[in-house]
From TrEMBL:
GO molecular function: 3'-5' DNA helicase activity; ATP binding; ATP hydrolysis activity; DNA binding
Domain spans labelled UvrD-like helicase ATP-binding: 9-287
A Pfam family of this chain: PcrA_UvrD_tudor
Chain residue ranges for the region called Disordered: 659-678
Cross-referenced InterPro entries: DExx_box_DNA_helicase_dom_sf, DNA_helicase_UvrD-like_C, DNA_helicase_UvrD/REP, P-loop_NTPase, UvrD-like_ATP-bd
Record organism: Halomonas eurihalina
Residue ranges with Polar residues bias: 659-674
Top-rank taxon, per record: Bacteria
Protein's UniProt name: DNA 3'-5' helicase
Gene name for this UniProt entry: uvrD
An annotated GO BP: recombinational repair
Chain segments annotated as transmembrane: none
Residues annotated as binding ATP: 30-37
SUPFAM superfamilies, sorted: P-loop containing nucleoside triphosphate hydrolases (SSF52540)
DNA sequence: TTTCCCGGCCTTTTT
DNA sequence: GGCCGGGAAA
């Protein structure tokens, strides 16, 4: 039993209390950087070693695959044994597992497919067309979020009360039709995975009893991010008798807009019997300046569970605040400072630039490129979400299931093979009348003469292609199937003929898909699936692609500055953090400023951003910003006022750049065209690239004055910033 | 049927 | 500034 105490080694009293608490419900309020994952992992180890809990009896639930993977890896490292059979996974992967195992009880076809939100949206768009519904009044995205919202609340169409409201009734009807389409195609969306698995347990008492019996302890990470459905699912699965350890932080709840219920954390404490509350407040990440500033900011939120981060470490540097006169200047300050810090010895990968919205990254990227600073953008488009990949996957799905209308429609004319919208429309109408799938109506329509000419030939060729591929697939391994699909469908050829480098990249992605498939069958890519040969592996591979779409951390090891949104920064840490665009309307975002609840979420987002920083935090804003192609005057964010001044220092403009007249008065000339140079002078605008005979190429940062005497400030590569008089300097716009 | 151009739109994102 | 969708032209 001596290794039992080893589990508690090097832990602070609160951590130790959480890890070694006797079995029972426990809520761990874990502040940022308080060693949350460590506590969770050690808790599981403790339960197994000190309480004698069988590895089979553990269920650990996370939100992302990454978190699940990390938990498993760390647990294996701690215990020194393989834990492949332990149930550690995301809500969705666990729900998926239940549905695959009990597909009959769940009233699903054996080979049901998972669709992502993109597929879902396409399906909805088609539905609206099919039923001739005005997509101005019912925008597809709104319909989608209505349907997802219902599922997240655990509601089926008949359970939604429209109060006789025409708009809502229509929505409910769309939900119902959408659901029918999914059922017919054997399609399950993300919300459906959870809702269906909840219903599976709810409607099969024996099954429920089995799992309630099986799991001896359930652990949940990021509990503040659970939605109503996930909460209900946990409640059902544990019967509120199986003890739970849930870990969360109400101050880091930033996903309310996608259904997360911050109040679940309070509800848990009240509803689940004898819940023990443990607070982890000691922070191992940041300096006390950063923590005190973050604590002060978050105090402006009402109704918190209450928590104050502290550190035994250093006071640290003040938070630097820089107000640029425009977004270019802000970017330049950030990049200049990064270069200084790198020269001092920081690695680039230790530095992160965080922003509220993706659009902000462009200007920063351009500046980084100009100054030759390598960077990497986090997030962005995922591999399995790329157009060419989704097309290939759609063909693969058709191999498994011809009745998958969404996939069929996606690729029936990709690459173009003469099956236009009119032809597809005919098929759709027919399918709607007969209640059959598109695949079936394709066959009917080509044989009974209701379509003629070229359409029939093309449709037959398409059907033959699919059948042939299916036949050939029988003897092939997974990656061979995919390779053949890429070639035989003409997808590779199609992209090879595309002009520009885009096509080349797409061809490479298709090849990468083959490589990924090879890796998938070779390694045990994920638990519970015996990756067999060919078609059997294909099904597993497709599920993996849908559930684990985000796995693309390729050049992680290159030394790059890290760029990402504040949302994607959650859970990460960096020695040096820049938060850019700390301005009213941008952060807090104007869409979230009206409602107090949403404003508080913005504040939590700011809190999350600040607490990413270990040693040094920079907050920057700009007075004038180009947003959606328009110049806007911006005011510093209220969050800057909410952080006590004594933690911050204002950065002085270096080099005494005089503040240009043009930024302090709204000049229509500047806003539309920049500097009007007069008849024979070039017309220039802020941010424009220009070339100078001596200084070379640069970018216009600033401008003042008019006509011949107008001056512009240009940032030249290698030469620094210079003020030039337009009448003399020979500037050529690029 | 396909391609190209124009106008309107614009927060955050995982599964 | 860039993306998407719709409509018109080829």
């Amino acid at each position: 039993m001596d290794d039992v105490t080893a589990i508690l080694d090097q832990m602070n009293p609160a951590q130790r209390e959480a890890v070694s608490a006797p079995q029972g419900n426990m809520l761990v309020l874990a502040g940022a950087g308080s060693g949350k994952t460590r506590v969770l992992v050690h808790r599981i180890a403790w339960l197994m070693q000190a309480e004698g809990l069988s590895p089979y009896a553990v269920l650990a639930v996370t939100f992302t695959n990454k978190a699940a993977r990390e938990m498993r890896t760390r647990l294996e490292a701690l215990l020194g044994i393989s834990l492949r059979h332990v149930w550690v996974g995301t809500f969705h992967s666990i729900a998926h597992r239940l549905l695959r195992t009990h597909w009959q009880d769940a009233r699903l076809p054996q080979h049901f497919q998972i669709i992502d939100s993109d597929d879902q949206l396409r399906l909805i768009k088609r539905l609206l067309k099919d039923y001739n519904i005005d997509d101005e009044r019912y925008p597809p995205r709104q319909v989608q979020s209505f349907i997802s919202g219902c599922k997240e609340e655990g509601l089926r169409p008949h359970q939604v009360d429209a109060h006789g409201d025409a708009y809502l009734s229509q929505m409910v009807e769309l939900y119902e039709r959408y659901q029918l389409t999914c059922e017919r195609g054997g399609l399950v969306d993300f919300g459906e995975l959870l809702l269906r698995s909840l219903e599976l347990l709810r409607d099969n008492p024996a099954l429920l009893a089995h799992y309630q019996e099986r799991f001896g302890h359930v652990l949940v990470d990021e509990f503040q991010d659970t939605n109503t459905l996930q909460y209900a699912w946990l409640k059902l699965l544990t019967g509120m008798r199986t003890p739970m350890t849930v870990v969360g932080d109400d101050d880091q709840s930033i996903y309310g807009w996608r259904g997360a219920r911050i109040e679940n954390i309070r509800r848990f404490e009240n509803e689940f019997p004898d819940t023990k509350l443990v607070r982890l407040e000691q922070n191992y990440r940041s300096t006390s300046v950063i923590l005190d500033a973050a604590n002060a900011l978050i105090r402006y939120n009402a109704d918190r569970m209450g928590k104050e981060l502290w550190t035994a470490g250093d006071h640290g540097e003040q938070i630097s605040v820089y107000g640029g006169f425009n977004d270019l200047d802000e970017a330049r300050y950030i990049v200049d400072t990064i270069r200084e810090r790198v020269a001092e010895g920081f690695n680039r990968r230790e530095i992160a630039i965080l922003y509220r919205s993706n659009a902000q990254s462009r200007v920063i990227e351009e500046t980084l490129i100009r100054q030759g600073v390598p960077y990497r953008i986090y997030g962005g488009q995922r591999f399995y979400e790329r157009l060419e990949i989704k097309n290939a996957l759609a063909y693969l799905r058709l191999l498994l299931n011809r009745d998958d209308d969404a996939s069929l429609e996606r690729v029936i004319n990709v690459p173009a093979r003469g099956i236009g919208t009119r032809t597809v429309e005919t098929l759709r109408n027919r399918a709607r009348q007969t209640g059959e799938s598109l695949w079936q109506s394709l066959h009917d329509a080509t044989s009974d003469g209701s379509l003629r000419g070229r359409a029939v030939t093309s449709l037959k060729a398409f059907a033959d292609l699919i059948e042939q591929l299916d036949n050939e697939a029988a003897g092939l391994s997974l990656h061979e199937i995919i390779d053949r699909v890429n070639e035989r469908t003409g997808l590779v050829e199609h992209h090879r003929n595309e002009k520009g480098e885009k096509g080349q990249a797409r061809v490479e992605n298709l090849e990468e898909l083959v490589t990924a498939a090879k890796a998938f069958t070779q390694g045990e890519a994920f638990e519970g699936v015996e990756a067999g040969e060919g078609m059997a592996a294909l099904e597993a591979f497709l599920a993996e692609a849908a559930l684990n779409a985000g796995d693309h951390e390729a050049d992680e090891f290159e030394d790059c500055v890290q760029l990402m949104t504040l949302h994607s920064a959650k859970g990460l840490e960096f020695p040096v953090v820049f938060m850019a665009g700390v301005e009213e309307g941008l952060f807090p975002h104007k869409m979230s400023m009206e409602e107090p609840g949403r404003l508080e979420e913005e504040r939590r987002l700011c809190y999350v951003g600040m607490t990413r920083a270990m040693k040094k935090l920079y907050l920057t804003h700009a007075e004038l910003r180009r947003l959606h192609g328009k110049e806007t005057f911006q005011r510093p964010s209220r969050f800057l006022r909410e952080i006590p001044e004594n933690f911050m220092e204002e950065v002085r403009l270096r080099g005494q750049i005089s503040r240009p007249v043009t930024t302090s008065r709204p000049s229509p000339g500047l806003q539309q065209n920049g500097v009007e140079g007069g008849a024979d002078l070039p017309s220039l605008s802020l941010g424009q690239r220009v070339s100078h005979p001596i200084f070379g190429e640069g970018v216009i940062l600033n401008a003042e004055g008019e006509g011949e005497r107008a001056r512009v400030q240009v940032s030249f590569e290698g030469e620094g910033d210079k003020w030039l008089v337009l009448g003399f300097a020979k500037l050529t716009p690029l």
